[in-house]
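Hey, resending since the last one bounced:
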Amino acid sequence: MGRKKQEEILDPLARVERHKEWQNWCDNLFIPFLDVHRKDAPWLIEGMLPEGYLVLLASPPKSGKTCLATAMALAIATGTPFAGRETKQGAVLWLSAEENPEERHAILKSSPIADTCTPFYTCYQKLESTRGRASMPSSIGSAKPRPSW
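The structure tokens again:
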């Protein structure tokens, strides 16, 4: 038995604390649909893009999805308000399946709010295999990212 487990068995306060942590995790595992817009929910773009969620942007071809996603990503990378909404600044990883590096480079270079210090990174590698997708989290953590331009 691991040392941490032994300590928890011997220390009832540690068991209670661990149970509280587990209960909190369970309570936040499934959130009712109408509770998504709670005031305490963390947002990357206030009221529009929640932090820590998978968000799907879907519409017909050539309707502006990439343009919208680029504008949102740049707002997050620079901490600039998006469409009049507060934005939480953070690094952006752009996984590109359909464009080439030259297109993304040209778009980012022409942005008036981004520069070479903006934490916006791109990946053009195919992640089709289970192995490629499974290795992505560790690859991101160990990568020495370079700006996209």
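The chain has two domains: 3-30, 41-142.

Sorry for the duplicate.
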